Amino acid sequence: MAEPQLSVRSARARELAHRLARRERRTVAHVVEQALELYARQQHGEESALDFYARLARDLSADIDLESILRENRHGHAGIDL
Predict the structure, then answer these.
(1) pLDDT digit string (tens) for 34-57?
(2) How far is the CA of 69 from the CAs of 17, 74, 80, 81, in angstroms?
(3) What is the residue-wise DSSP string for 17-80?
């Protein structure tokens, strides 16, 4: 089955997408997908994992021992009730 096609009526947008694809040695579809994902993150406040962890490290003054927290709160499952 053929991949869906994206139709862009703007000659400027088409030329820019093709130029970026040639420069990055990627397909036009990949360049457009990345651009749209970045746009969606910026417009809707979604943050990448890298930005999230950087913000977490910056905002927390003390290190958290995640392993010990998990160990303390880990409980065995009793199983199904027959």
Answers:
(1) 988 888 877 877 777 788 788 877
(2) 47, 9, 26, 29
(3) HHHHHHHHT--HHHHHHHHHHHHHHHHHT---HHHHHHHHHHH-SS---HHHHHHHH-------
Given a cut of 70, is residue 61 above it in pLDDT? no
- DSSP SS3 for 16: helix
Closest CA to 39 of 13, 59, 71: 13
What residues have CB less than 8 Å from 6, skipping those under 6 apart?
29, 32
Distance CA 37, CA 10 (A): 19
- pTM equals 0.49
